Amino acid sequence: MKKKLENYHVIGLMSGTSLDGVDLALCRFRYKGERKGKAKWEFDILKAKTTGYSEGWKNKLQNLHDANGLTFVKTDAELGMYFGRLVKNFLSKNKPKPDLISSHGHTVFHQPENGFTSQVGNGAQIAAAANIVTVCDFRTKDVALGGQGAPLVPIGDALLFSEYDFCLNLGGIANISFEKNKKRIAFDVCPVNMVLNTLASEANLKYDKNGNLASRGKINMDLLGKLNALDYYRKKAPKSIGREWYLKNCETLISDASVPLNDRLRTFCEHIAIQIKNSTVSESGSKKKMLITGGGAHNKFLVRCIKMHLEKHAQAKNIIIKIPSKEIIDFKEALIFAFLGVLRVRKEINVLSSVTGAEKDSIGGTIYAAG
């Protein structure tokens, strides 16, 4: 791999905490040099696809945090082989063959406060199954440097989506990214689809389409108060959360059967909107643009809740929400993880200490040769 290739074809592979599937995006990146001291890149998403997890894989990944060591290692290898086969099948009809695969993996443990984070989907297995150079394991070096290991997307926000003042991703967990004092700041805001999809499953649905169930519910003020009182929301950035945090802090609250399902969905949408508003008010002022992506951007009711809370707050009312094309909504994270892989093979910084709180910026990712 030449360090200074100007064009790259990369597959970004993303498996999020919401367990809605594996995102594959074949992307092209073109390095255009520097402008005003910042690298200028252009990108295209050439082809993209989401493959839903089978019930077997969902159950396995949902319960992996409680499994023994042997099961964990076995699943890591099996998921890597599965990812590699998905890439191979994806490419059988799509060319050109990429220079590399850049994989987020699937997060099982994320406890930076205890010095570790762990994603399954073994990179060596991916590289062997797909016969393509594979970059993975982007988080652990930053955690070793004292950082949160998350969010990682903000470097892509800064270099690929610089026209937006705020980049908000509504995935399993919401995270937000923006510039402050000429530095990129980002953090996890709160759970989103991790909770909304879990609640929708009580109605035998994969998700609450357009927020239809939530829109019929009423806000339960007691539940809302308990959610908004969670300690995490009083912490200052850098900060991040994972599935363990959700299981410890949210699961019991949202599973309270004494509150009707629609009311719990409505209340959690309100909670999400409040936390997003709280995360933006100190950084707003003059007119600013907010890009919203991730599966939650398709939830029209949730987006309305967010917009309402921004508009009624004096410090946030000038924020203009922008919903991009479906392709960017669904595959922005896969696109940016593809970009992280490009920066890795170029030996350029792809993890920002201003975001994670690490002692310094770093180059994250482990490279596995093809074959």
Commentary on this structure:
By secondary structure, this protein is of the alpha/beta class. The chain has helices spanning 55-62, 69-91, 123-130, 140-144, 154-160, 193-201, 212-215, 221-228, 243-249, 251-254, 261-280, 300-311, 326-345, 353-356; strands at residues 7-15, 22-35, 38-51, 100-103, 106-111, 116-120, 134-136, 166-170, 173-180, 183-191, 288-293, 319-322, 366-368. The strands form three sheets. It has a six-stranded mixed sheet with strand order 3-2-1-4-7-13. A five-stranded mixed sheet has the order 10-9-8-11-12, sandwiched between helices. Helix 5 (154-160) crosses helix 13 (326-345), helix 6 (193-201) runs antiparallel to helix 11 and helix 11 packs across helix 12 (300-311). The longest helix has 23 residues, at 69-91. The radius of gyration is 20 Å and the shape is globular. The mean pLDDT is 93.
Describe, in short, the structure shown:
Helices cover 37% and strands 24% of the residues. It is α/β, with parallel strands linked by helices. A six-stranded mixed sheet has the order 3-2-1-4-7-13.
